[in-house]
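Class prep. Protein, please:
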Amino acid sequence: MSKHTKAAGTAGGEDRRVSLFEGVIDGCSLAIGELDEEKAREVCQWKYDGDYAVYNLSNWQTAKFLHHGITDERRRRKEFRSLLDGDGCFIGYFRLFREEPDSITLTIGMEPSHCSLGLGRKVMELIKRYAAKKYPGKKLLLSVRGFNRRAVRCFTGAGFQTQNRFLRETPSGTTEIFLEMECVPQPDAGFLGISDTVPEPEAKGGSKRKKK
């Protein structure tokens, strides 16, 4: 599926559900949908340039062998969501999972050609509204590589504040500085929500965030 392929369509002659939640952010229509295997396979094909190549994922078969969460159907249904533009085109994805009772951890990825187009803060606002509605009162936590100033500016502009800096060993074997950021989403009465029947993320047994 190319980035221009719409999420709308039919499967087996039946209408497919396009979105779980929708919103208009600064005049831009965006939606949140399920992340099915077709979209997950597409994510594994995304390629970023230059320093951002560290965000390139393994191909699908390697990712499955390494047990990456995006390849596991059960975890995708619980934790992963797709991001769609106003035409229903797949432009990114995010993951929400619980590590602590009072917080939800967020990771996010944008389709490469949609980076640096001013969509970041709009997408983050949509995710914040979704999180506030689905997980009221929970903090949103995320970690970002220190070199990625583009992402840090986006998250800061979306209301996230840096709480900690720490060192983490990356899959390539190098050690990098990461920033831990957090935000407390506020409910928005104007948010358009469609009932999300996918089970919410489960707390990971005994998992604790390590800080250095």
